[in-house]
Predict the structure.
Amino acid sequence: MLDLRFVCDNIDLVTEKLAKRNSKINLDEVVELAKERRASIKGVETLKAEKNQVSAQIAVMKRNKQNCDDLIVKMKIKGEEIKTLDDRLVVIEHRLNELMLDIPNLIDDSVPYGLDSNDNVELRRYLEPTAFDYTPKAHWEIGENLQILNVQQAAKITGARFTVYHGFGARLERAIMNFMLDTHTGNGYSEVFPPFMVNKDSMLGTGQLPKFEEDMYAIKNTDYYLVPTAEVPVTNLHRDEILRESDLPIRYCAYTACFRGEAGSAGRDTRGLIRQHQFNKVELVKFAHPSNSFEELESLTAEAEVILKLLKLPYRVVSLCSGDVGFSSCKTYDIEVWMPSYNRYVEISSCSNFIDFQARRANIKFRDANGKTQLVHTLNGSGLAIGRTTAAILENYQNADGTVTVPDVLVKYMGVNVIK
RNA sequence: GGAGAAAUACCCAAGAGGCCGAAGGGGCUCCCCUGCUAAGGGAGUAGUACGUGAUAAGCGUAGCGAGGGUUCAAAUCCCUCUUUCUCCGCCA
């Protein structure tokens, strides 16, 4: 959420920045309601102050056994007046909140301008795309041939966009998870294992609700949602807290399964592990000081890249353009792994600085040297999506005979050098 | 799932319609005293959000788990919900 005061005081700047996102938000109603809100508050609080004063007076008179029936009658009327104004204020604030919750974050000035993902800017590459002297297979074929991935069974027991892992497939997924967590904890991240269901307040806090409700799985008969990413439970760990400045940055890594409706991607990536309703992911989350959050974004991205470097998988890093940056983010780097079957790079991590956008929604602050509270900056990035890493390994490490070589760093987790 | 108890400031805890934004204790901060330490004495200790103001001081409003209600007036009475604890049932 943006700061209401800032929006009202900087209408032109905010409008301009939203336009860069191709966002069609109209701020007129916000400004109008904000004015009305202030006027209402002034009015109602003046009346409340009066009422409080007279009530205190009544208390004294009662104690002195004086008659104060006329004051009580007066205050009864005043009370009704207050109620009317208060009700109006509630309506105004409710609507204002609704509007504010739907406004995306303002993008950073360093974000390249563009309409969609075609305008994203490549920053760097690691390794060359894997070369084959035969026609490489897609991971779903490899997985099926090795009998480690089974889509038919998943379709039977659940439905489309699910996969059952068997044998070394299941083990590979688990090996990658452990390798990632071990690497990140070795780099100073504290491991967290949160619930996979969260309440509505958490989903509001990180920005999944109210706008993206149709992509989330709500659980019947409860107020809970399946987590779409560990970002939600982990960022909300410190909701409604005032952190110690000296504790910043706080760094967490967390594995969770992630659940997404994929409402807007019917027909896309229908085969394989790339786009599933349930997938595994290790997430990196930081609570950073506002003065250096963009440096923290650089290091967070680098820390996610470490995984691909250690796995020796070719990848590139792109800076998302203004039209492609997500709703809550101020600036985002995507890490894209080389996927031979797609003959292109595929997103495997998204690293974002949300600055104070989530912190304002979730009320996460710290106390500065002057004793004042300030909003923290929150960041997160996949470190990495595990299913897509499995897919990338199967494809990039495949051999002509249909086997898959196990990356060196995973051998100790897998117990074998080759998946046959 | 059933039955009971509880939720008050950094922590413990009193308070049972108005003199309560809240006794008392611990802790913490500052001061005094004492070679050091321990002990002792004194003062301070609701943060926060919003409105107003100059992004100050000050003033005002809200705030005793959350949300409603009763009342001129609610920590205190009523309703709903949440969480925690104890017991029973079920269960990995």
Remarks:
- Residues 28-63 of chain A form the longest helix (36 residues).
- The first strand of chain A starts at residue 121 and ends at 126.
